[in-house]
Design brief:
Layout: E1 2-8, E2 12-19, E3 22-23, E4 29-32, H1 39-49, E5 57-62, E6 70-72, E7 79-81, H2 82-89, E8 93-98, H3 99-106, E9 115-117, E10 130-135, E11 139-145, E12 154-157, H4 170-180, H5 188-191, H6 194-208, H7 217-225, H8 230-254, E13 260-263, H9 265-269, H10 271-276, H11 279-285, E14 299-302, H12 307-320
Helix pairs in contact: 1-2, 3-12, 6-7, 6-8, 7-8, 8-11
């Protein structure tokens, strides 16, 4: 049985072929959404390049609230419909799951994932849930929970990017004013995303009385990590502090003793800073009387952008069982 795994984000679409619940090595491809009119064109290109005309089933992870019939992406004007996917791929079964739900299922195949441990002293957590969260085009999280009664593990999906951003101190309240202008409030995603990082940078420049000198979030993260621009560096510190605080809050909610896993392109862009700068982990641990308890949770950075495809493979494996 050959299946197609798809991870449709706001910026890129990644695809891979799956057999018997395993993502086939060398079968994956990544495509910029800007180069295609719709998802069906992406899928047709991928299958043509792999010399495959049809598959038996499809699992699609997308940045939206998924329904049985499909969904419209949150950060892109694409609607993905089950019947059109089936017609394009020849599949008899098409399943839709949220992209972070897919990342959650990937935690069941964590040994196949490329990771970097950010807390070497606590690299091996005791058995328990795994939490995956991260910043990319947007922000979200999900939790993988092992069964206590011998059954299949399950994934708890969420919409964490729409939670209210937790802030503290005069500088952060000033940032809140900038992020909430015209929006009514500052959500987590308003800060912890690519667009959020750039808005933090714009706020930092305004606070310093300087005009912005870069034009993209990618430039901000690059110059922040290399410490080549003071305003980018300060924006990066603010981003990592807020990311650490939100991660710590979610860790207290889910108690992920088997690990916290950071994902997303923006998170990976700060890989060097996350491993060498204490800002993130200090904010993660800053939970008052629970500060020592936060040492219970090992923290990892997911380095492979195919993680959601592994999650789709795990979904396909479990659904076929």
């Amino acid at each position: 049985m050959l299946a197609l795994a798809c991870d449709i984000g706001g910026t890129n679409t990644r695809l891979g072929l799956v057999r018997d619940g395993i993502l086939l090595s060398g079968s994956t491809g990544s495509y910029s959404n800007d180069d295609f009119e719709d998802f069906y064109a992406v899928a047709a290109t991928f299958l043509h390049e792999r010399g495959t005309q049809r598959v038996d089933s499809v699992c699609i992870a997308l940045a939206a609230v998924a329904t049985a019939e499909g969904a419209t992406l949150t950060n892109r004007d694409w609607t993905i419909a089950r019947d059109r996917v089936a017609a394009a791929s020849g599949a008899g079964r098409v399943d839709f799951i949220n992209d972070f739900e897919a990342l959650g299922y990937a935690m069941g195949q964590v040994e196949k994932l490329k990771t970097q441990c950010l807390t070497p002293g606590r690299a091996h957590g005791r058995p328990g849930p795994r939490l995956v969260l991260g910043a990319g085009t947007g922000f979200n999280a999900s939790a993988w929970c092992p069964s206590r009664f011998g059954g299949a593990p399950h994934v708890m999906a969420a919409e964490c990017g729409h939670m209210t951003l937790p802030l503290a101190g005069e500088a952060e309240f000033s940032l809140q004013g900038a992020l909430s202008a015209g929006r009514g409030r500052a959500s987590v995603e308003r800060a912890l995303s690519g667009r959020g990082l750039f808005e933090i940078y714009q706020w930092q420049c305004a606070e310093a009385g300087r005009a912005p000198s870069v034009a993209t979030a990618a430039d901000v993260s690059r110059l922040a990590v290399t410490r080549a621009d003071r305003d980018c560096e300060q924006a990066g510190h603010m981003f990592m502090r807020l990311l650490g605080r939100v991660c710590g809050d979610l860790a207290l909610a889910y108690l992920p003793f088997s690990g916290v896993y950071l994902s997303g392109g923006v998170s990976r862009a700060f890989a060097r800073s996350l491993s060498k700068d204490p800002t993130f982990l200090d904010a993660f641990r800053a939970k008052g009387r629970q500060a020592d308890f936060m040492e219970s949770f090992p923290v990892y950075l997911l380095l492979d952008d195919r993680t959601a495809l592994h999650g789709c493979a795990e979904w396909l494996r479990l659904s076929a069982a």
